[in-house]
Design a protein that fits this description.
- The protein is α+β, with helices and mostly antiparallel strands.
- The protein has one domain: OB fold (Dihydrolipoamide Acetyltransferase, E2P) (Beta Barrel).
- A five-stranded mixed beta barrel has the order 2-3-4-8-7.
- The protein is elongated.
Amino acid sequence: MKRALNITIVLVLVSSLVMVSGLFAQIKVDPQSKLDRIEGTVQSIDKKNMTLVVRQKGTANLDYTVVYNDKTIFTYRNDKATLAELKDGLRVVALGKADGATKLVAARIDIRDK
Protein backbone atom coordinates (compact mmCIF):
# COMPACT_ATOMS: atom_id res chain seq x y z
CA MET A 1 0.00 0.00 0.00
CA LYS A 2 2.77 2.41 0.95
CA ARG A 3 4.69 1.54 -2.22
CA ALA A 4 1.64 2.27 -4.42
CA LEU A 5 1.24 5.67 -2.74
CA ASN A 6 4.92 6.50 -3.34
CA ILE A 7 4.64 5.53 -7.01
CA THR A 8 1.52 7.69 -7.39
CA ILE A 9 3.29 10.68 -5.83
CA VAL A 10 6.30 10.25 -8.13
CA LEU A 11 4.05 10.01 -11.20
CA VAL A 12 2.19 13.19 -10.22
CA LEU A 13 5.45 15.08 -9.71
CA VAL A 14 6.90 13.91 -13.03
CA SER A 15 3.67 14.83 -14.84
CA SER A 16 3.76 18.31 -13.29
CA LEU A 17 7.33 18.88 -14.44
CA VAL A 18 6.49 17.78 -17.98
CA MET A 19 3.52 20.18 -18.14
CA VAL A 20 5.54 23.14 -16.78
CA SER A 21 8.39 22.52 -19.21
CA GLY A 22 5.78 22.46 -22.00
CA LEU A 23 4.75 26.00 -21.05
CA PHE A 24 8.30 27.28 -21.38
CA ALA A 25 8.68 25.56 -24.72
CA GLN A 26 5.84 27.64 -26.21
CA ILE A 27 7.75 30.93 -26.05
CA LYS A 28 10.17 30.72 -28.94
CA VAL A 29 13.14 32.88 -29.92
CA ASP A 30 12.79 34.85 -33.16
CA PRO A 31 15.78 33.92 -35.35
CA GLN A 32 16.20 37.42 -36.85
CA SER A 33 15.81 39.66 -33.82
CA LYS A 34 16.92 37.10 -31.19
CA LEU A 35 13.97 38.30 -29.04
CA ASP A 36 11.40 36.01 -27.42
CA ARG A 37 8.35 35.59 -29.66
CA ILE A 38 4.68 34.84 -29.04
CA GLU A 39 2.21 34.54 -31.90
CA GLY A 40 -1.53 34.26 -31.39
CA THR A 41 -4.91 35.94 -31.25
CA VAL A 42 -5.72 38.93 -29.03
CA GLN A 43 -8.28 37.89 -26.40
CA SER A 44 -8.46 41.16 -24.47
CA ILE A 45 -6.77 44.55 -24.16
CA ASP A 46 -6.37 46.40 -20.86
CA LYS A 47 -5.21 49.92 -21.75
CA LYS A 48 -5.18 51.04 -18.11
CA ASN A 49 -2.62 48.37 -17.15
CA MET A 50 -0.97 48.40 -20.59
CA THR A 51 -1.44 44.68 -21.14
CA LEU A 52 -3.12 42.36 -23.57
CA VAL A 53 -3.90 38.67 -23.44
CA VAL A 54 -2.78 36.65 -26.46
CA ARG A 55 -3.96 33.08 -26.97
CA GLN A 56 -1.43 30.89 -28.70
CA LYS A 57 -3.12 28.13 -30.65
CA GLY A 58 -1.77 24.64 -30.59
CA THR A 59 -2.16 21.57 -28.51
CA ALA A 60 -2.82 23.49 -25.31
CA ASN A 61 -4.37 26.87 -26.36
CA LEU A 62 -2.21 28.84 -23.92
CA ASP A 63 -2.94 32.44 -22.85
CA TYR A 64 -0.05 34.87 -22.41
CA THR A 65 0.02 38.31 -20.87
CA VAL A 66 1.85 40.75 -23.13
CA VAL A 67 2.96 43.95 -21.42
CA TYR A 68 3.56 47.02 -23.57
CA ASN A 69 4.88 50.48 -22.69
CA ASP A 70 5.69 53.81 -24.32
CA LYS A 71 8.77 52.25 -25.95
CA THR A 72 6.84 49.38 -27.57
CA ILE A 73 6.69 49.70 -31.35
CA PHE A 74 3.37 48.80 -33.02
CA THR A 75 3.38 47.67 -36.64
CA TYR A 76 0.91 46.25 -39.15
CA ARG A 77 2.62 43.71 -41.37
CA ASN A 78 5.93 45.43 -40.66
CA ASP A 79 4.65 48.98 -41.46
CA LYS A 80 4.09 51.62 -38.78
CA ALA A 81 0.84 51.24 -36.78
CA THR A 82 -0.67 52.43 -33.50
CA LEU A 83 -2.17 50.87 -30.40
CA ALA A 84 -5.58 52.13 -31.59
CA GLU A 85 -5.43 49.65 -34.50
CA LEU A 86 -5.11 46.71 -32.12
CA LYS A 87 -8.44 44.95 -31.43
CA ASP A 88 -9.72 41.74 -29.88
CA GLY A 89 -9.65 38.83 -32.31
CA LEU A 90 -6.70 40.04 -34.37
CA ARG A 91 -3.66 37.84 -34.92
CA VAL A 92 -0.43 39.35 -33.61
CA VAL A 93 3.24 38.56 -33.16
CA ALA A 94 4.79 39.99 -30.00
CA LEU A 95 8.56 40.23 -29.68
CA GLY A 96 10.33 41.08 -26.46
CA LYS A 97 11.66 39.55 -23.26
CA ALA A 98 9.90 36.64 -21.54
CA ASP A 99 9.15 37.22 -17.87
CA GLY A 100 8.26 33.76 -16.60
CA ALA A 101 6.30 31.09 -18.43
CA THR A 102 3.29 33.13 -19.54
CA LYS A 103 4.34 36.78 -19.62
CA LEU A 104 6.23 38.79 -22.23
CA VAL A 105 7.39 42.41 -22.03
CA ALA A 106 7.00 43.54 -25.65
CA ALA A 107 9.52 45.62 -27.56
CA ARG A 108 7.38 45.23 -30.69
CA ILE A 109 3.84 44.07 -31.47
CA ASP A 110 3.08 43.33 -35.11
CA ILE A 111 -0.57 43.15 -36.14
CA ARG A 112 -0.94 40.48 -38.82
CA ASP A 113 -4.55 41.03 -39.92
CA LYS A 114 -7.35 43.55 -39.51
